[in-house]
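Please fill in the sequence for the structure shown.

STRUCTURE ENCODING:
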């Protein structure tokens, strides 16, 4: 019955403040103190923050000067991505003792489908407890887990009781669980979409569920189908361990068009910082850097540069980004969007989040 309905047992594991926790583990003098990985008191962007720092509002991708202003006692430490990758491989090996269906999203989180678990335990909650215990035993780090019948809910559930916690949402609980969620907890609902929803008096999953798919399509375009299904606790995406990611990047649209060389160069430096943090977090290594620019008249161009080898580090990535920007300067009509992407990647899994069609059924097996 459950297999026919496509119900799965899915665990989402998310390491707690991963980069910062590794630093606190390896440097006892940092334990219990507010720590930011990456950046410095004067410049750069925070790659990760300890829970002590988060209490002051310090977050990843935040400019270092802002983080320091919010937390004057913040300690900045240099990142060690080789160490983080090594620990990540340890953790993934633990996952694979229970299932071959492991889909990493980044160095510090992954989905695991344990519908048919290797050890024959048959209880996803028990498996999640075992995984968390083994991670702590082997790495001295804590992980939080979400256990549910689909990826959408499992991922949200893993954040419910952080740090070092677990949340289990069974199939018959899914729709009610989603109903009470603020819409900002839905993947893809950022500040601007959240504002549009608030103006439409949509604040929770229940408010979303009350809307027709046609209404959602009218106001949110391509996201309508995803929002319609997710608000009902529906997501039948499979855990896909072999999905290869094609690129890692980011872009930014500006409220005022960038015209001067100085404004463009300053904007590029911020994009370099943010995109490189994403590259490092995903563990990506690639050979091609692409610049995307959209002009004030909405005309869009791209410029790329490829090497025979992988980009060696942030400095080289930044130099290529600046070189590509210089190739389109000076601009006449202004630039409303800039973005950078690293492509031709090696061994990085895709972190896709599109919900697939289908209706959630009931499950009789153990969670």
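FILLED IN BY: designer on duty
SEQUENCE:
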């Amino acid at each position: 019955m459950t297999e026919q309905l496509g119900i799965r047992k899915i665990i989402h594991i998310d390491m707690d403040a991963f980069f910062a926790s590794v630093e606190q583990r390896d440097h006892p003098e940092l334990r219990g103190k507010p720590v930011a990985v990456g950046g410095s008191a004067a410049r750069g962007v925070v790659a990760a923050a300890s829970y002590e720092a988060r209490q002051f509002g310090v977050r990843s991708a935040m400019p270092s000067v802002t983080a320091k202003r919010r937390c004057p006692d913040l300690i900045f430490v240099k990142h060690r991505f080789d160490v983080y990758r090594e620990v990540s491989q340890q953790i993934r090996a633990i996952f694979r003792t229970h299932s071959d269906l492991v889909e990493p999203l980044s160095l510090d989180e992954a989905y695991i489908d344990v519908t048919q678990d290797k050890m024959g335990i048959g209880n996803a909650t028990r498996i999640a407890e075992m995984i968390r215990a083994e991670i702590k035993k082997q790495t001295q780090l804590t992980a939080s887990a979400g256990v549910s019948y689909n990826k959408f809910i499992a991922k949200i559930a893993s954040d419910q009781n952080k740090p070092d916690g677990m949340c289990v949402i069974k199939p018959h609980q899914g729709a009610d669980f989603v109903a009470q969620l603020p819409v900002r907890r839905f993947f893809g609902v950022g500040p601007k979409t959240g504002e549009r929803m608030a103006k439409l008096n949509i604040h929770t999953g229940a408010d979303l569920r009350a809307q027709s798919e046609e209404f959602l399509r009218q106001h949110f375009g391509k996201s309508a189908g995803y929002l319609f299904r997710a608000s009902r606790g529906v997501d039948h995406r499979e855990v896909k361990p072999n999905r290869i990611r094609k690129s890692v990047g980011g872009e930014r649209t500006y409220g005022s068009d960038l015209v001067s060389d100085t404004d463009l160069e300053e904007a590029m430096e911020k994009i370099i910082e943010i995109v490189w943090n994403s590259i490092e977090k995903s563990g990506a290594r690639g050979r091609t850097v692409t610049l995307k620019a959209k002009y004030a008249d909405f005309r869009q161009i791209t410029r790329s540069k490829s090497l025979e080898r992988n980009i060696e580090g942030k400095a080289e990535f930044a130099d290529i980004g600046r070189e590509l920007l210089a190739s389109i300067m000076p601009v006449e009509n202004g630039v409303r969007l800039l973005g950078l992407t690293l492509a031709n990647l090696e061994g990085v899994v895709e972190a896709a989040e599109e919900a697939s069609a289908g209706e959630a059924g009931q499950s009789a097996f153990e969670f």
